[in-house]
Amino acid sequence: MAETNDPIEFEKFRSHILEMLVSSESLNVILQEIVLGIEKLHPQMLCSILLLDNEGNHLGNGIAPSLPDFYNEAINGVQIGIGVGSCGTAAYSNERVVVEDITTHPYWAPYKELALRAGLGSCWSQPIRSSTNQVLGTFAIYHHDTHTPNESDIYLIEQSARLASIAIEKSVSETKLRESEALYRLLTEDVSDVIWKTDLNLNVTYISPADERLRGYKAEEVIGHSVFEMFTDEGIALILEKLKEREESEKKGIKTGYTTFELQHRCKDGTLKWGEVLSKPDRDPNGTIIGFHGITREITERKQMQEQVHQLAFYDSLTKLPNRRLFYDRLRQAMASSKRSHKYCVLMFLDLDNFKPLNDAYGHAVGDLLLIQAAERIKNCVREMDTVARFGGDEFVIMLNELSENKVESVAQAEIVAEKIRTALSAPYLFNANNNEPDSFFEYYCSASIGVVVFTNHEGNEDQLLHEADKAMYTAKEKGRNTIHFCTGIDALTD
Question: What integer is the mean pLDDT of 55-67?
Answer without folding.
Answer: 92
